[in-house]
């Protein structure tokens, strides 16, 4: 190999290159999100229940993250069967302690369950833990549905 192309052109530079390599490896786990490590907040659409001419939605939230959320407000958009936005709701999901599974029920007024095509977790409106306001909450959310209607992010 040509000396100019070598990673280790002389022994004096070997330690610096090795340190840079080790520093890069050390930083890799820090760039992994909580969702990728399984330490996310799971938000499952568990059930849709008819309530007269409206619908009631049941969300099951499982907090596998290291943070206990004092404030957690979700921006949920509801689409009809044709893909047209039918409603937009703010769902309060707090408090949500670490390691806790909770159920939140919210009404979808004036919309029959049969008319719902899918739900979208559009954003996280408010998210706060003991350290204060957080900006990374949407990335830490995982959505799922067993209600026969997709719940996506």
Automatic annotation (TrEMBL):
What name does this protein carry?
A: Tat pathway signal sequence domain protein
What organism, scientifically named, is this protein from? Thioalkalivibrio nitratireducens (strain DSM 14787 / UNIQEM 213 / ALEN2)
Phylogenetic classification of the source organism: Bacteria, Pseudomonadati, Pseudomonadota, Gammaproteobacteria, Chromatiales
């Amino acid at each position: 190999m040509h000396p100019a192309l070598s990673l280790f052109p002389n022994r004096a530079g070997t330690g610096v290159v090795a340190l840079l390599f080790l520093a890069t490896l050390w930083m890799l786990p820090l760039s992994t999100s909580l969702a990728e490590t399984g330490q996310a907040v799971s938000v499952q659409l568990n059930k849709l229940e008819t309530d007269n001419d409206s619908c009631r939605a049941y969300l099951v939230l499982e907090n596998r993250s290291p943070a206990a959320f004092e404030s957690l407000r979700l921006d949920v958009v509801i689409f009809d069967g044709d893909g047209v936005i039918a409603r937009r709701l703010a769902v309060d999901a707090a408090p949500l302690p670490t390691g806790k599974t909770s159920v939140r029920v919210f009404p979808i007024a004036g919309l029959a369950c049969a008319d719902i095509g899918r739900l979208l977790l559009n954003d996280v409106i408010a998210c706060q833990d003991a350290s204060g306001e957080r900006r990374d909450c949407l990335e830490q959310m995982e959505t799922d549905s067993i209600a026969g209607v997709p719940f996506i992010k």
